[in-house]
From TrEMBL:
This is Sigma-54-dependent transcriptional regulator. The keyword Chaperone does not apply. Keywords: ATP-binding, DNA-binding, Nucleotide-binding, Phosphoprotein, Transcription, Transcription regulation. Pfam families: AAA_lid_14 (PF25601), HTH_8 (PF02954), Response_reg (PF00072), Sigma54_activat (PF00158). It comes from the Bacteria. Residues 140-364 form the Sigma-54 factor interaction domain. Residues 3-118 form the Response regulatory domain.
């Protein structure tokens, strides 16, 4: 039998929810305090869904959430919260909650649907669904922990009618993430419209957002709807929101507070149901301190805050990103292991956008008869390649010293033992030693030649094929 745990200090709410779900044939347990929660024997009672009120007189709902997830990690958790604590509810989602709902419960049908959705979901199917939407949105999640946590949080808040602020450096993919949020929401069949607030003058941006009446200003030769009107049931993405003028910020604040606006030159009030997602590459908190951005608008936009990590903090995702970008160009080319290593050593100040342009350029400049792009063929400028090679060489020299000490200790230990020795394994370790030493000499020579492989091979008196072989590259 499905079992539901309800934690709420309001006895009436506990009684109401208990009756509601018992009528569906579920077993329901209600506790009214943190103390009662601590008295539950979780070894005897297994819960499928828990509904936890964030504010209890003797406990913090977030603490109870963490405690519950430790003893019953498969239990789905729904946080119950007032509007003023929605930001805390989002924090709860980051800690493992599956959903949240605002109190008081104005829509009982919605509450029932949310619980039924939690009961019907599984970790596998949910993850599969998220990955499918990500692919359709052009979002490559990768393997980095930070990016996966971000997408899990984004997927959980996507269906909520709350404003979202996305922060991230230029080129990290803020618009792609906003499209993912739209596709993962109930509005996915409605319009998604984006506008760059920094690309338009104040007057043009005002007209673009709110529309205008014919003759309202010079050049207004006809009536025009604004984006808040066109995307009324969909999603409006405001990129570079920090670039919006103070006057535009005031008007945006009014729309967010009242859901009402007027076209330029009109006195008629229009209403909108647009879901707003804003993005910036600036620190809006700092902009508020410097009086460059309205504090009240910041808090209205920042109901849910998502920050995209820069590419230099998720370098483990570069191989997958490169593979995706190569597929997008329609080429059969691939990058060698050393080429990927070189890309992972670069800091990518322009993030994914820079990487995308780089891969496109590398494909265009590649030998028409080649199937693999080698590290020395990458279109990286001389200074950058030298810095990367120097960084790799320093690491290689440090690793060699450590490797030699470990190898010598293990070999002498094997030599001194009187039991049977597998000589083949010892000789294999000698070959590995040869490989490591060879690679270290090559890396140091590459540092001296500023990454010039032909010159390095000449100095080492080996062929380019031998150099690539010792670097474990395909030939």
């Amino acid at each position: 039998m499905i079992s539901i745990l309800i934690i709420d200090d309001e006895v009436e709410i506990g009684y109401f929810l208990s009756r509601l779900f018992q009528s569906k044939g579920y077993h329901v347990k209600v506790v009214n305090s943190g103390k009662e929660f601590s008295e539950i024997d979780f070894s005897l009672e297994q819960f499928h869904v828990a509904m936890i009120d964030l504010k209890l007189p003797d406990a913090n709902g977030l603490t109870l959430l963490q405690n519950l997830k430790q003893v019953q990690p498969t239990c789905k958790v729904m946080i119950m919260t007032g509007y003023s604590t929605i930001k805390t509810a989002v924090d709860a989602i980051k800690l493992g909650a599956s959903d949240y709902i605002e109190k008081p419960f104005d829509d009982i049908d919605l509450l029932e649907k949310q619980v039924e959705k939690l009961l019907g979901s599984t970790c596998f199917s949910n993850q599969h669904h998220i990955e499918k939407i990500a692919r359709e949105s052009g979002l490559i999640v990768g393997n980095s922990r930070a990016m996966n946590q971000l997408i899990q949080t984004a997927a959980k808040v996507a269906g909520k009618p709350v404003n979202i602020l996305i922060e991230g450096e230029t080129g990290t993919g803020k618009e792609v993430l906003s499209r993912f949020l739209h596709q993962a929401s109930d509005r996915h069949q409605e319009s998604f419209i984006g506008v760059n607030c920094g690309a338009l003058s104040e007057n043009l941006l005002e007209s673009e957002l709110f529309g205008h009446e014919k003759g309202s200003f010079t050049g207004a030769t006809q009536h025009r709807k604004g984006l808040f009107e066109i995307a009324s049931n969909g999603t409006l993405f405001l990129d570079e929101i920090a670039e919006a003028s103070y006057a535009i910020q005031v008007k945006l604040l009014r729309v967010l507070e009242t859901r009402e606006f007027m076209r330029v030159g009109s006195e008629s009030i229009l209403r909108t149901k647009t879901r707003l997602i804003a993005a910036t590459n600036e620190d809006l908190k700092e902009a508020v301190k410097q009086k460059k951005f309205r504090e009240d608008l910041f808090y209205r936009l920042n109901v849910v805050h998502l920050k995209i990590p820069p590419l230099r903090e998720r370098k483990e995702d570069i191989p997958l990103l490169v593979q995706h970008l190569l597929q997008r160009t329609g080429t059969a080319l691939s990058f060698s292991n050393s080429a990927i290593d070189l890309l992972q050593s670069y800091e990518w100040p322009g993030n994914i956008r820079e990487l995308s342009n780089f891969v496109t350029r590398a494909v265009m400049l590649a030998d028409p008869n080649a199937t693999i792009i080698q590290a020395d063929e990458l279109p990286i400028n001389h200074q950058t390649k030298s810095q990367v090679v120097a960084s790799n060489t320093d690491k290689q020299e440090s690793n060699l010293e450590s490797y030699l000490k470990t190898w010598l200790t293990e070999t002498l230990t094997t030599f001194e033992q009187k039991d049977e020795v597998k000589l083949d394994e010892v000789l294999a370790q000698v070959k590995e030693l040869e490989s490591q030493v060879g690679k270290s000499f090559i890396m140091r020579t590459l540092k001296d030649t500023h990454g010039n492989r032909k010159e390095a091979a000449k100095r080492l008196q080996i062929t380019m094929r031998k150099l690539r072989y010792l670097l474990n590259e395909k030939t």
